[in-house]
Design a protein that fits this description.
Elements (H helix, E strand, L loop, with lengths): L8 E10 L2 E11 L4 E6 L5 H8 L7 E6 L2 E2 L5 H8 L2 E4 L11 H12 L4 H14 L15 H13 L5 E5 L7 H18 L2 E5 L3 H7 L2 E6 L4 E6 L1 H7 L3 H7 L8 H11 L2
Parallel strand pairs: 3-8, 3-9, 6-7, 7-8
Antiparallel strand pairs: 1-2, 1-4, 4-5, 9-10
Amino acid sequence: MDTTLHPAIEVRNLTMGFADLILLQHADFEVKQGEIFVILGGSGCGKSTLLKHILGLYSPMQGSILIHGTPLNPDDPSAYQAILKTFGVMYQGGALFGSMTLAENVALAVEEYTDLPDAAIRDLVEIKLRQVGLAGFEDHLPMEVSGGMKKRAAIARALVLNPKILFLDEPSAGLDPITSADLDELIREINASLGTTVVIVSHELPSIFSIAHRVIMLDKESRSIIAEGDPKFLRDHSPHAMVRRFFNRQAMQKNTQAENTHAENSTP
């Protein structure tokens, strides 16, 4: 199948949640090939849960997910494994193994899924660490490097098998502004140089405005997608007041009815 004929990801009529708790219902969206796409929203709206559904770690209550036109079906192990090989994932916090060097962490997937000889694996790992700016740090343990370097090593591990889609869960969380900006630049370079589709879960507005081609915004109250598009356009022109407040970092408006009631009660 020619994957260029299809979006990288298609989500159709998706309802997700746990038991009686529904987080998102009847959601539809696409991720285009080669774009940087961000899933955002307030705390508890289901951002990371949606990512895990796209990865096939959770099953939808309703609806379907297609990857390059192929239905995502973990119950079909052969087809599911074929799809997983097109994914690279950086989990929240990096999730590196603390007892292993950065090189050993990056090499894990290569050792698991290929028959490359040890020398070729070492060369590949060195290339990927150099690609993310970590040349010379191959033998360092995660505890010996900074938070930003851990994130870079985790991205190198996610890229080591040249995935078509790179998933990043809160890549800038916990980083200082300069380190975060450097990581944003790395993500842009990966997207531009490799053509990799990048799907990011984030609520870090500076990063979102810096790198996102398109976003969707989840809303906890309505359990729906309340905005989709260019984040800068949504910031300035969204018809949804909550969306504009989110992108402009504005506090929620006071309850006008409560204020009027208080004013009436205070009238002599």
